[in-house]
Amino acid sequence: MKLPFVLLASTALAFIPEKTLAQTSEQRVIQLEEVTVEGKREGEGGPITASGYVATSSRSATKTDTPLLETPQSISTVTQQQIEDRKPQTLLDAVSYTPGTRVGNYGFDPRYDAFSIRGVDVTYTGVFRDGLRQVNSPNGLFRLEPYGLEGITILRGPAASIYGASSTGGIVDLISKRPTFLPFREVEIQTGSYDRLQGSFDLSGPVASDNTLLYRLTGLVRHAGTEIAAVPDDRVFIAPAFTWRPSDATTLTILGEYMDSNTGGTAAYINNYATDASGNPTSLSIGATRVYAGDRRYNDFRQQQGRIGYEFEHRFSDMFTLRQRTRFSALGTNQEYVYGGSGLTRENNWGIVSDTHLESHLRTGEIDHTILTGLDISRLSYISKQGFDATIPIGVDPALSYREEQTQTLTGIYIQDQLKWRKWRLTLGGRHDWLTSEYDTAGFEYDRSDAKFTGRAALGYVTDFGLAPYVSYGTSFTPNPGTVLNGGVAEPTTGEQIEAGVKYDIPGMNASLRAAIFDLRQDNAVIYQVVDATNQQVQLDLRSRGFELEGVATLAEGLSVQASYSYTDARILRLTPETEGNQLTSVPYHMASLWLDYTVQDGSARGLGIAGGIRYVGESFGDNLNRPVIENDARAYLDAAIRYDLENINPSLKGLRFQVNATNLLDEDGQVCTSNYCYFDEGRKFIASLRYRW
After folding, report:
1. Which of helix, strand or coil describes residue 11?
2. 641, pLDDT greater than 50
3. pLDDT tens for residues 471-492?
4. Worst-scoring range by mean pLDDT, 91-105, 534-548, 630-644?
5. Which residues contact 21 (CB under 8 A, 6 or more apart)?
6. Which residue range forms the structural domain that includes residue 27?
7. Scanning 162, 452, 552, 613, which has its CA 20 to 30 A from the CA of 232?
8. Calpha distance 536→530 (Å, rounded)
9. How many domains does the chain have?
């Protein structure tokens, strides 16, 4: 998938592009088992059911409450407990310990959550929110506040048979916090590196004593800097939610969010380039300097975003359940940058997504069927205005001389049958999508219509002792917003994958092990690459093969573990003759991670929690030509955390927890290059927090 000019060049802004800037199963609420200082929650039929670090079911994979052990697909889950222990500040932080997920391709960059799964970019088409695709435009990508999440589900491999337009590499489903039956109240203050100051709150419970109306209100205010003096990290975030449950058969949940955030329009450093005999830059990058590419006098990147939606469920009987999810979202950006002159991008997008499906439970002979039939409709519209002027003083807005706009409408119908016969589990699914695109840029109109069928077939076997091998095949399809190539809108990206794996839930323990091997192909993927110091869009075909291992556990002795390893061999099949067969830029063969968290259970240190983690990223190439001059070295990042429940000092302090989290303790801030442009990793960072729950 492409990364827009503003992500790689006009934001890194080392280059001017070729067109020179002219161109719920049952929707029940997540319920608190008890309000304790650990804050452990137990979901009862909710989007994610988990105990500590170990998830047992998630609706994301099948849109039904299917145990993860019985779901024949590679799945990872970031639970609420993991979020509380690691305190991730971005989506990239949250998924950095899951196998096959490559974060940090562009070094330190707080503006966008750009990452890949199994070597396939998922930035634009792989992020979903509460089971609905998160619509994005070239410079309008929704920012995530992790404090507003209950959990994250990562599906590796195609999921288009039920989700429609999505990445071949997989999807990341972000689960919003929902109202709880039991009262839950939390306030927290934070400080830390770069003059960080943050306050947050999370309040939930019933509105009335009959528990028919529940609420949740989550909010955050932050004023902070970053390691680049010209790049702030400020935001205001508020997320109200209400659940109305007039009966056990009917549930309506309203989910809302508003966020106003500001960071830097440029977050990169000037690169050195070799020159030809005439002094013109060539495509051979020497590497990044420590000279900041922007100017703090004209560098604000403000984004205002909002969403409002609902989830409705009605259970007619044990046989039939109807669900509908609908969300309207909008965002506006105002991005200032400086690189050889002043640049400005203003973009607004609007999107509506709706998914309606009927879940039916039938039995034919000895075979149980869970049948899902659905209709999915989404519409994205955006307007982007851009301007650049090298002659005006810094701080003066350039004229917005370039405009583009696009509307995409996607309609899909789908059916899925989950068959259960003795210990066998067979999943069959198919979907047909119709896409229309109306694109207008610089006075030229490009219209396009496409239709595509996608499907999935998977077979698994569940033993009595917790072992479940499986094999699956799936295809994918996704349009490319805001992309014109070869005189027209870019071809949709398509893909397919075959996967085999095994899952093991260790009997008598809250622990699970997962292993998967995969072979995927993706055609007509849109990417950006730098050629002769110019950022250009191209489409390529790639093939990615590899395998992944993952283990998670939360044990009664106070120990929690998350470990992963992935091997990914992502190769270019079609781009240019010089790159065919090469390793895809910035995709390492090897990645591994380990996180250990231990809480003292008794004695004078009871309530003391200590945690440490290491993330290893192997060698990769900094461009698709695989030239050693910008090869990325292997590196490891060390993270740590310590916390203490103050009630162990004095019972009157019950509910108070002090916690310190550190990322990249060894300050590994070396150069990382992608698509022939080089960045620097984020350095060491500390966050101290004091939380009170009651």
Report:
1. coil
2. yes
3. 999 999 988 766 666 666 778 8
4. 534-548
5. 5, 10, 343, 386, 387, 388, 402
6. 5-693
7. 613
8. 6
9. 1
